[in-house]
Amino acid sequence: MRLPIIYHDNVPYTFCDEDIITENSYRVYHLGIWSPGQFLYGGFNYYFPAMVAHIQDSLTGNHLGLREYIIFCRFLLAVVLSAFFVPLTVLAADNFFRNRRVSVLTGFVAALSPMALGLSRFAYPDHYFIFSSALVLWLCSLNQKRALLIASFVCGLSMGIKY
Predict the structure, then answer these.
(1) Segment 23-81, tens digit of pLDDT
(2) Do residues 112 and 1 lie in contact, with contact meaning Cβ atoms separated by under 8 Å?
């Protein structure tokens, strides 16, 4: 459902807030630096796509241009990372309710939720919130002390990602 939209609004007509993230992240990636040169809120937004792009470089030997990098960021954040939202929500509902119908219905509601659909077309820091909220919900559904400790860490990390 999210895959075709990653090609929408390409360079030079990209979404304005997306440019703040992707252009600075591309600069970090393209120059091979790990410090953007100025204080940027939400540093994880710049470093995570750049690190994965560096791994892609080393595996394929292909250095991405700005257009390819934006598509790569959209694929990484809007498609891959956000795709975990529905299965983790279904697993959490299955653990909480122990009813397959309720779990599947929860998955449909999660897939069509305004939060999931609204963030499905561009690379933006809120994708981490979608993923981490579903991960925390699933970890809490496990009802184990270690899982709750990890959930607390993930929740704190996700709050620090954006700001």
Answers:
(1) 778 888 888 776 656 555 566 777 788 888 988 998 999 999 988 888 888 888 777 88
(2) no
- Euclidean distance between CA atoms 131 and 60, whole angstroms: 27
Q: 97 or 120, which is more confident? A: 97
The long-range contacts involving 85-88, CB below 8 angstroms and separated by at least 24 positions, are 85/110, 85/111, 85/116, 85/130, 85/131, 85/133, 85/134, 86/110, 86/111, 86/116, 86/134, 88/131, 88/134, 88/135, 88/137, 88/138
Alpha carbons 118 and 112: distance in angstroms, whole number: 10
Position 100 pLDDT exceeds 90: yes
Q: Could you tell me if 69 and 31 are in contact, meaning their C-beta atoms sit under 8 angstroms apart?
A: no
The type of residue at 125 is P
CA–CA gap between residue 111 and residue 1 (Å, rounded) = 9
- List the chain domain ranges: 3-77, 83-162
CA angle 43, 161, 72 (to 5 degrees): 65
Token pair for 86: 């529905």
Across the chain, what does the average pLDDT equal? 78
